[in-house]
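Saturday, quiet lab. Running sequence design on the structure tokens for the scaffold JK sent over.
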């Protein structure tokens, strides 16, 4: 699998329908036309105008969605850029040395769960407050129950300002893929990075754009909108109140650990020994 990051600086051709010349019908009197011929011509003209108008409206919709998506992706802060750079370096390092899968069902080339853990550990070593989060939500009349795992980095902005959260999703583009997506939707999807690293409000905007586009695509293809593609379901993946898993970095095996007095942080440390670590994935190439 190839992972792409979005760099900060980065048709409808409506066919003209020709009307063939048809013989003009007369009722025997010179200059008098059959009324049904005129009505057919008028109906054809109306249909052509309506089709042209629909095509123009559809093109305007997809163009505006693409422009809005790109402008959202280009916006960034220095904090987001630092995390994006560190995440990219972590993935490159893990690709080089290989992901050591420690799951019960081990994957040959490592797995996404272990990759996520490896990235999180390296971000913590780099001084970022990174945690692995799992969101869970119950079923409702609109959407089914589900859960999703991702990473979150929090910047401490002081007591007077709310903390800044940055979401890291290693499988971002795949979350919005459709088996039978229309050409315009697939082209919009190609604009997305494989790995998303950005603030929650930016992610919220992207979800709205993509869910609106998928709804339009489904409607044009006369397909049913699956509940797991709805806006509310996609929001629940990253924008709810997740459970944060302790992710303290374990000491190297060759290090001698001396007993010390019990401390509050040791409770978290003990739990990390029993953590199971990352879904199957292949080697990741960062472009």
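Result came back. Writing it out in full:
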């Amino acid at each position: 699998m190839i992972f792409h990051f979005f760099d900060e600086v980065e048709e409808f051709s409506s066919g003209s329908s020709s009307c063939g010349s048809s013989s003009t019908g007369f009722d025997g009197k010179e200059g008098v036309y059959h009324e049904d011929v005129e009505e057919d011509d008028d109906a054809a003209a109306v249909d052509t105008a309506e089709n042209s108008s629909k095509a123009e409206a559809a093109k305007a919709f997809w163009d505006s969605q693409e422009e809005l998506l790109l402008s959202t992706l280009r916006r960034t802060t220095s904090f987001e850029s630092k995390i994006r750079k560190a995440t990219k370096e972590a993935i490159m390092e893990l690709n080089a040395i290989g992901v050591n899968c420690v799951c019960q069902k081990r994957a040959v080339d490592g797995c996404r769960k272990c990759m996520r853990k490896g990235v999180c550990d390296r971000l913590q070593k780099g001084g970022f407050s990174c945690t692995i989060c799992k969101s869970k939500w119950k079923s409702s009349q609109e959407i089914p129950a589900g859960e999703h795992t991702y990473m979150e980095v929090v910047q401490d902005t002081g007591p007077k300002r709310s903390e800044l959260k940055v979401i890291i999703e290693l499988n971002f583009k795949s979350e919005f893929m459709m088996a039978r997506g229309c050409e315009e939707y697939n082209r919009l999807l190609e604009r997305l990075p494989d790995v998303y690293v950005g603030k929650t409000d930016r992610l919220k905007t992207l979800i709205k754009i993509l869910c609106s586009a998928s709804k339009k695509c489904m409607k044009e293809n006369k397909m049913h909108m699956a509940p797991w593609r709805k806006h509310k379901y996609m929001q629940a993946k990253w924008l709810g109140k997740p459970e944060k898993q302790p992710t303290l970095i374990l000491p190297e095996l060759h290090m001698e650990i001396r007993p010390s007095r019990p401390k509050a942080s040791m409770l978290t440390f003990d739990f990390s020994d029993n953590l199971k670590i990352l879904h199957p994935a292949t080697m990741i190439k960062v472009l």
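Notes for JK: The chain has one domain: 54-248+277-286. The first strand starts at residue 2 and ends at 3. Ask whether to fix the surface positions before the next round.
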